[in-house]
Amino acid sequence: MSEHGLVFNGIDARTGGYLISPCEAAQVARVARGLRPRPVELDELHGKLGQDFDFPVKEGVDADDLAQSGWAVVFPFARRGSPEGRRQEAVREALRPLLARRRAQALGRGDERLYRECVGPAAYRAGESKRDFLERMLVGPGPVDPEVFPYYVLLVGGPDEIPYSVQYQLDVQYAVGRLDFEQVDDFARYAEAVVAAEEQPPPRARTAAFFGVEHAGDRATESSRQHLVAPLADFVERRGRALAEAGGAAWQVRRVLGEDASKAALCELLATPPALLFSASHGIAFPCGDPLQRERQGAFLCQDWEGPRAGALRDAHYFCGDDLGADSDLGGLLGFHFACYGAGTPARDEFARPGPKGAPALAPQPFVARLPQRMLARGALAVIGHVDRAWGGSFVQADPRNSRAQVAQRTVFESMLQRLLSGSRVGYAMDYFDLRYAETASDLAARIDDLERYEVPCSDEELAALWLQANDARNFAVLGDPAVRIAGARADEGAGAGAGAGAGAGADVAAELRAESAPERSPEEAPPESNTAPDERAALIQVVIRHVRERAATGWSVEVETEAAGRSSAYTRCTADGRVRSRVPVNDTGAIDEILWRIHSLEVARIQDRDSAWIDFVRALFSNDP
């Protein structure tokens, strides 16, 4: 919290000024006190915090494998034969290629419970809460049991049919996405694009592009460019290099930052789209009911904008859905847009404290932003964006040691990106944001309760920060199928794919050892015949012996250190005799840094799994079995 107050993203398209002027923490704290989570929501949030960080589904289920985690599609109830019912039938038919593919993947092990189409009596019913809907599905609280209801959930319909509030709350436990188009043909185009990207990945370089606007004197974009976009580009470049060194596909990183982040540059970037596009700027907004609100709210403000004193925005200042032509091809793209209203707009202002007539209206009815809709209809696999306003609390917080300084908090973003680069499905990668929401919302409710019931002092700055962080993490939404992944990221995308994580780890070990033991050959030289298997086995054994000697010489230990900018690091060292030494990270108040520690624990577990797979492979290699 800076001494100059809170700064929000968002520009009023009609005036060219900020949607919300910088405000003081006390104003936000007053809103926070009146909008705490309900008791039933708190129970679910505490349950989220209590589960194993790497396993949002029940123990023993691989969340990335649809044959274990399952997939469901949920439609709003529409009476058969009505105009709504006839349209819904047309939409289901348009989605048939995608539904057929997900059904084949989810039923890869023959369990019919892992694929659900919630239509007719099983559809979402108007006015239901998330809890009401899940109770009808016979789902109780706790980790997801895919045999009761699948982990990946695609909502088909607008927020006027299935509310944003239901999407937010489902997303605490499940991997949720939304698909909403006005034209039935767009559903068909999206379904065909996803199937094509998974069955025949586009022959494009694996490029991650980072587009970050930075206007001089504009604190919001200065912060997002300096503390979010540029550092994340560096992070992805490092991770991509590490993946390539481990035998994975190489990644190229493209940066379009500051003065280079013009509308023309974004058009050029999308002409040959990257596999991953991460962007941050102001989103634009219009007054409630404005003729252009539905088409352009949430459009992306580019570097061409001349600042808040230049008057009303012009088309040349921003990139909107109309800028994507009918012939645009975004096949295989996965987008993440950090901007106000970048994913959609609720009907009511969730930032303002409700008055006698409720919260002020933002729009005649809630809607999904047009830009991501057009992107999905032009071949994009998924777009992650923000519903309602966005603010810098997503990635920075005040430095308690210096009121003039800020500390970057990018761990959630980095973890999400690392999962995506590693081939995880987008809904599973976004679970880091769900955990952040669960943690901050629970902390907020506890602090308000302490303040009101026990008169425990709590500063406006702390309340404001917790409220903003909780709402920000909650309002990130996936548009598109939550089960998509970066095109070509995994080789197991066959219709019946269902290999577990352990098998994959063992295959990785075998591939690395075989690559190391293979003799060098010229490109023209034919590969060895299959009857050379005994020679290959002998070569592999020699490589294993060398690896064992090298590890023994270094004490056969594993060291893992996880750090985030401005925070203490977590450290673990495991030795061959079973001893474990750990350093637990703490935050500025002296309490355990739960998020960093859980992320660190995840990394330790992954390395332990890899060692276990390595040992299993070696045991099989030295066995007497043919």
From TrEMBL:
Basic and acidic residues bias spans: 511-524
Region (Disordered): 508-536
Protein name from the UniProt record: Gingipain domain-containing protein
Lineage of the species this protein comes from: Bacteria, Pseudomonadati, Myxococcota, Polyangia, Haliangiales
